[in-house]
Write a structure and sequence with these properties.
Blueprint (H helix, E strand, L loop, with lengths): L2 H4 L1 H15 L9 E8 L5 E2 L1 H9 L3 E17 L2 E14 L2 E16 L2 E12 L2
Parallel strand pairs: 1-6
Antiparallel strand pairs: 1-2, 3-4, 4-5, 5-6
Length: about 130
């Protein structure tokens, strides 16, 4: 049985991350650890405070985030390592964008709750 089936909350929170980003939903902070590191494909890295400020200012507006592949799931104790691919579209500084991203996400479970600790995305060039 794989980790996501065994621990549905992890799968649920991965889905919520995409949904909250896409809908610019402030509840996203509920699934981020306070020491989160959010790395973007342009090399920009945000800590929790930077992420909250930029997210609420709508610096980046995501129109669609669609997972296309879940390629790796590893778990060690209360830490899960997830590699997946997503198609993303949105607006950054009034410029529309559309890209395919490969993501590495590290989730940590504490008190039965999975929260994102680290995320790095890279653009997959056609």
């Amino acid at each position: 049985m794989d980790i996501l089936q065994k621990d549905g909350k992890l799968s649920e929170n991965i889905g919520l991350l995409d949904k909250y980003l896409q809908n610019n939903d402030e509840r996203i902070v509920d699934i981020l650890r306070p020491d989160v590191s959010f790395g973007h494909s342009n090399g920009w890295v945000q800590n929790f405070e930077d992420f909250k400020k930029d997210f609420s200012s709508k610096k980046v507006i995501y129109k669609n985030i669609q997972q296309t592949e879940l390629s790796e799931i590893k778990r060690y104790k209360n830490t899960a390592n997830i590699r997946r691919k997503v198609n993303v579209s949105g607006t950054y500084k009034n410029q529309d964008f559309e890209m395919k991203l490969a993501l590495l996400e590290i989730w940590i479970k504490k008190n039965a709750v999975w929260k994102l600790w680290s995320r790095q995305s890279i653009e997959i060039k056609p």
